[in-house]
């Protein structure tokens, strides 16, 4: 505890994380997944409640889950029903522009143009194949827990992504799973009292895929930080 570690290394690991949307068919050993999750669970949480619950899916179970969610995604009659609201109904600026920018940057790399709804739908559907990753994670939280625990949850998720990076692995966290919680619930036997927050793809990134060259922008420091000293 309290040992000094090289800040530059930590910063490099953090800044080397980018959402990857194409993975190699290379196995991730169970021991390594366990180690990453144990490390991630060192995340702080209000009164140490540790509100996270993770389902680690691979092999046939991943194929089954993927197939079931993809089927729902492709069914125009399927009622999407997220149990929580990630986004507002209307996006105020500057959020609307940022959101559009990253979306069009991604579609640009994939040569998807405005109005190409079918291509967009197919690309969105790649979420449910965990972008070909060998490991899919599904995250739930008990329905009784409040917004503070959701804050804790974000720290756990970020820890997974950073720990994975330290082991040469990549990730993509995916809220796209939330509206399909009924399907996921029945596939993984998740209790009704658990809210499906999101999923995450975990594996070795396929850097030959164009979408993985996306480096999303960040606004300059002065736009989000105020230094007050007098
Ligand atoms: C909670 C959360 C949910 C997300 N859901 C999705 C998703 O469903 N599909 C996807 O492709 N990316 C998803 N993303 C990735 C974001 O688009 C990405 O983090 C953002 O554009 C910044 O890019 P970066 O992660 O490469 O830095 C999600 C990110 C977060 C934090």
What is the fold's blueprint, element by element?
Blueprint lengths: L6 H9 L14 H11 L12 E6 H16 L20 H15 L7 H9 L9 E8 L4 H20 L3 E5 L6 H8 L5 E10 L17 H4 L6
Bound molecules: flavin mononucleotide (FMN).
Flavin mononucleotide binds next to strand 3.
Strand content: 5-15%
Q: What is the CATH class of the domain at 18-86 and 128-214?
A: Alpha Beta
Secondary-structure element series: HHEHHHEHEHEH
CATH 4th-level superfamily of the domain at 18-86 and 128-214: NADH Oxidase
Bound molecules: flavin mononucleotide
Provide the spatial order of strands within the biggest beta sheet.
1-2-4-3
Helix percent band = 40-55%
Global structural class: alpha+beta
Judging by the overall fold, what is the CATH architecture of the domain at 18-86 and 128-214?
3-Layer(aba) Sandwich
Number of helical regions = 8
How many β-strands, per DSSP?
4
As a whole number of angstroms, the C-alpha radius of gyration is: 18 Å
CATH topology of the domain at 18-86 and 128-214: NADH Oxidase
Q: Kindly, what is the distance between the CA atoms of the first and last residues, rounded to a whole number of angstroms?
A: 34 Å
Q: Give the overall shape, derived from the CA principal axes.
A: globular
Low-confidence regions: none
Whole-number mean pLDDT: 97
The biggest beta sheet is recorded as:
4 strands, antiparallel
